[in-house]
Amino acid sequence: MKRDLMDILCCPMCKGDLVLEVTEENEKEIVKGTLYCGKCKEYYPIDDGIPNMLPPELRE
């Protein structure tokens, strides 16, 4: 996931702002981490550079 994507991402549940926590990054993108919504207290994982923005009940 590119850092620039944070400018347009919002929580899919409540449309609140997301906080990025990076656990792995290379010179091009964020590889692993989480996006956190403080408004609805939900976490969205970033795996292999792809943010999973599905509601928790729809994730595998």
Topology:
Elements: E1 18-25, E2 30-37, E3 42-47, E4 50-51
Antiparallel strand pairs: 1-2, 2-3, 3-4
Give a quick summary of the entry:
This protein is mainly β. It has no helices and four strands. It comes from Candidatus Methanoperedens nitratireducens.
Give an overview of the whole structure.
There is one protein chain. By secondary structure, the chain is mainly beta. The protein has one domain. It contains no helices and 4 strands. It has strands spanning 18-25, 30-37, 42-47, 50-51. The chain has a 4-stranded antiparallel sheet, with no helix packed on it. The chain starts with 17 loop residues before the first strand and ends in a 9-residue tail after the last strand. The model has no long low-confidence stretch (mean pLDDT 94).
Largest sheet: 4 strands, antiparallel
How are the strands of the biggest sheet laid out side by side? 1-2-3-4
- Per DSSP, the total helix count is 0
Helical proportion?
Answer: under 10%
End-to-end distance: 20 Å
Keywords summarizing the entry:
four-stranded antiparallel beta sheet, 60 residues, 0% helix, single chain, mainly beta
